[in-house]
User: Fold these one by one.
Assistant:
Number 1:
Amino acid sequence: MTKIVEIGNVKIGGGLPVAIQSMCNTKTSDIEATVKQINELEKAGCEIIRVAVPDMEAAKAIGDIKKEINIPLVADIHFDYKLAIESAKGGVDKLRINPGNIGARENVEAVANICKEKNIPIRIGVNGGSVDRKKFPILNEESLVLSGMEQVKVLESMGFYNIVLSIKSSSVPLMIKAYELASRVCDYPLHLGVTEAGLRDVGMIKSAVGIGTLLNKGIGDTIRVSLTDDPVEEIYAAREILSCLELRKDPFTFVSCPTCGRTQIDLVGLANKVYNYLRKNPPKKHITVAVMGCVVNGPGEAKEADIGIAGGKGTGAIFKQGEFVRTVKESEMFSELVKEIEKL
Ligand code: SF4
């Protein structure tokens, strides 16, 4: 069992629910754009948000951003300890910084001291690219974890234990092995992710396999799905991973058939429209919605759902909680289905 760490008003570790994170892709110094994106991400289900702090202008924006948002804010800092101190003064809820890349011990101590005073946790993040290859010529799970633990020990030597650890890799098997090892050698909460996972579709699959495998073994306290896409997609993907593993219930379960030679409606178009509608308008209580292509397997699945539709020849039969409701024309399928969802 990992330790519990408080990130603003969100606690992670100790078997608490796994928290979903993302990272803004706005300029942090553009306060208006950053706040807008954070609030959109929160609406999608983001529970902890990170921003890049590459310069003093960004660090000074932290305080103003904090005033306009509800979820905990994490400052991502490399090299300059003064940016960490300024972010801490601005009320940031967590720092992502590696002691090893901010120079002299006194600089690290200055960061550790202000974090202690303000109860700000520090995430140490190691990935394949940050391992010192002179010290660890072979990149494997041991070198990743040893690199992370070296950073941890620097903070521990200053009496600082409010730590979260990430050991990421773009290789799924390597990140799985590294997190498994990390979970055996330390009890700090683990932030899971496949780094540089790529474009949306491939990135989601890599993340689902990597993060999902670990969560299924009880490893991991917070997750970020890294995608080369709008960060809101990261949140939807993270929610889907947690929902598939039944670690939390999403507002809806969406079922749709793969289509085949029996399909006589534009099922792919309909399924996309219904799914996007549900994402943008999450039901207040959990429902299952089924969009099926024909009368062979369709009615059975549609009847199992709270709301379902089974396509016919240019028509669709709507089912609600197991009962046939009515048949509608193809052009009306989406709007009629939405009407029934809203009535629930
Ligand atoms: Fe084919 Fe019907 Fe099954 Fe869809 S539900 S894959 S259309 S048999």
Note: The two ends are 40 Å apart (CA to CA).
Number 2:
Amino acid sequence: MKIIVTEHYEALSRRAAEIMLEVVRGKRNSVLGLATGTTPLGLYAYMIADHEKNGTDYSDIRTVNLDEYRGLPATHAQSYAYFMRKNLLDGLGIPSANTHIENGMAADAEAECARYDALLEALPRDIQLLGLGSNGHIAFNEPGTPFGAGTHVVTLAESTVRDNARLFASADEVPRQAFTMGIRHIMQAKRILLLASGANKAQAVYGMVRGAVTEQLPASVLQLHPDCILIADREAAAKL
Ligand code: GLP
């Protein structure tokens, strides 16, 4: 794993943007694996600013997202589909037919997972962006998830519900389940870029980089990926 430590969040976002833009400019029909959460917001703002200023072309780019809350329609302000449109996809002018995310409202969860697995196999990602849960989760793969898992429905850990409650009116409104890309498909990406910012990620970053590779800390699997880059700000890297 290549580790880049930056002074602060702003520098982390800028460095991440350089890496993403290298991929987009290098191959006009790249497949980008994208992530939600607050950590990539700075990166996404850089990508939109670059698109506006330099006209970087996204018309043939395809995107695949990691996860979606179960039970939230794409129109819900806290759904990840809505988050992606608002914070990145609309700003880059990517045709919506080229953007993919699990359908949180799918009545047949098993069929939805199979549909998404087939899509992931058909769209090998040139780069997969990841955030990090404070408990070491990636996407919504909570501790204990088998590394071989494909797309599945997960019951969120209590700590994840607490962490994500800040984005909802109250913890009661956080959906208890989600669809998530599994670790098997995360690991299939050609390159992985994980961003970690803030002191509440320091323990998970330490475990991910220096600890044993274990399903109890899902992000530790990234030690086995041949081209994984971690960008952490000083606070997140404090225990390394
Ligand atoms: C959610 C998402 C993850 C994300 C994590 C961290 O649980 N499913 O993909 O990495 O939040 O979020 P944040 O970046 O806001 O700390």
Note: The first strand starts at residue 2 and ends at 6.
